[in-house]
Amino acid sequence: MVDSRFFFVSLTIILFLVFSTVAQSPDQTVENKSLRVLSKTLIGDDGRVYACSDNDFFSFESNGSIAWSVHMDFKCNTGFSPVYSGFNQMLVLAENRILRIDFPRNGTKTEPEMFFDPGETILGFAVSISSSSVYITVKDHGLYAYSMLRQQLWIAEPKTERFGYRLGCRKDYDNCKFDSGPVIDSCEASIYISNNEGELYSLSLRGTYYQWIQDLSLVDRFFTVTQGNNGLVYVVFPTKSLVFALDSFSGDILWQKTVGPLAESSSSQPVIDTNSWVSIGSLDGTLYSFSRKGELHKIPENVEADLMIQVEPLLDCSGNAVYVSQTKLEGKTDLVIGDSTYVSAKKPETAVFSLVVPETRSIHWSHSYSDQSTSLLLDEDLQHFVLDERIVLAFIAASNSGNPFRCRSKHVKLSSSCSFAEPEHLDIYIGNERAIIWFLLFEFVIIVLFAALVRFCFIFWKKQKLQGRPFSVFLDKRRLLHRKRREIDRTITRLQNKSTADEFSVDKINDLVQERENVKRKLSSTYSLGRDIDASKSKDHVLPLYGGGSRSLSFRNRENESITIFQTHRHESSSSSEESYRDQHYDDDDDDGVADDENDEGDLKRKQKGKFFVHSEGSTSDDDYESCGVASSRRSTYLKKRSLSLRD
């Protein structure tokens, strides 16, 4: 029995060498060893294809002709594609050095400039045009960030601690190191990079801040990472034939899908179109496309058994479709061992190139090339290079073969590049909308009441009587004033209901009325629950209250004796002096505290021992009377006692 290992050959090597003969014309007599090998290609916004070979950098037109070339002092690394750095410049990796190549100006070429030379192995690099920075992974050292002016910004290592806790390299801290090139997500301003322990890091573009670290070693330590620029990060496990979608903000796994067998090379990199569909080719000949939510489209649905896809698809200029290359073989055998699938293949017969729209599963264009084809409609400049499916597919995509869609401009690319970056907004109010409205209204009322309470407390605690005094003293004084006012009211009522009215009773009533008004003034100002009121601006009144002019108050007893009280106006100057005296008197009374109320009754009795006969001379208008107030005016009281005779 023949050992099965002989059948498990590398498909990439076989098809790379065999398909190169398909692309050559029969007249070509140059041996394959004299042909030059092109690096991975880059399709620029100008429609040209950029690649390097040996010590030369080439810019090809879409038909394969060489537009211009630049000689380099170092041999380029064919495993990396050139990277556009903006300002009509390209960065190329050559012999572990990064060279900067300027586009020719007015036909004048410039020599490549050394941008970065670490003296160590470079695992990969990426450029962020928005931040004008270059990020480089150096083996056994870390991730370096440089500006376009070649100034070092920062260095990041896989070993990190925060608040005393180890975040990365949890299994083998001493031997942990980055082992992949950086991947930049421009929409999230993040860098994705993995270490040799199977951990995926998310770093900020502007510093060594680790946003999250996801341990994927339980699935496999070997994986590739592709930025989605749509709020997702796609991780492909080639040996497991798995595709993971991670949240770019938190690193959480949103969904995982199984695809057909994948090649263990960079050809397992997926491509994302502007509709946020991610597509990856499989060795079973099927293009697997997933929506942002994980919906699967298989193109074509029914594929022939002898087809395979060994190169990664390329996005067309419109961003809506992808170009795919399928290889038709003479025979193919699949073998599953454990979690891995091994594919053995025979000689390729035909290469089929197609233009596919993943969202609609439609194939807009398809063309096949076989070894009987005399030409691939490419310029003869490409005859000096090895043409495999990867190179041919790049030129087909650059020439927009069979593309019915309109190419996007640079402005449209920038405006639509992050159109799916924000996650979809979910409606969390799935209940009764009317109940939600009432709940929001209730919250609004609570907030208004709380604001009013805060304002009341702010005003209340600014009162003068609360400064430097206990709150209980203020309440006791207020309670005593209320009790005093009730006692005065009862006393006035009792005196008015007496059957006899003499001069002493009238004086006592007058004093009690004034005393009651002063108590009210205290309760409404200094001892109120609101703000303090300036006593000089208040209007104090003493019963009886009238709008103006002379007023009289008469009492009559059973013996037909009457007492009449006449009220006249006082002079303004005398009113002011009396009011200031009274305010000073009661302010002093307030300062004395609650104990002064015990002497109020004694003061009242002393006042009742005398009579006041005062006549205010001079004229006073009604307006002056209103401004001064009846309660603050001096009164001239004339008692007239007359005996009424019996009825005639």
TrEMBL record:
Biased composition (Acidic residues): 586-601
Protein name: Protein GAMETE EXPRESSED 3
UniProt signal peptide: 1-23
Keyword Transmembrane in annotation: yes
Residue ranges, annotated region (Disordered): 567-632
GO terms under cellular component: plasma membrane
UniProt keyword annotations, A-Z: Membrane, Signal, Transmembrane, Transmembrane helix
Record GO biological process: embryo development ending in seed dormancy; pollen tube guidance
PANTHER family for this protein: PROTEIN GAMETE EXPRESSED 3
Tagged with keyword Membrane: yes
Gene (name only): LOC108815139
InterPro entries referenced in this protein's UniProt entry, alphabetically: GEX3-like, Quinoprotein_ADH-like_sf, WD40/YVTN_repeat-like_dom_sf
Superkingdom, natural source: Eukaryota
Compositionally biased residues, Basic and acidic residues: 569-585
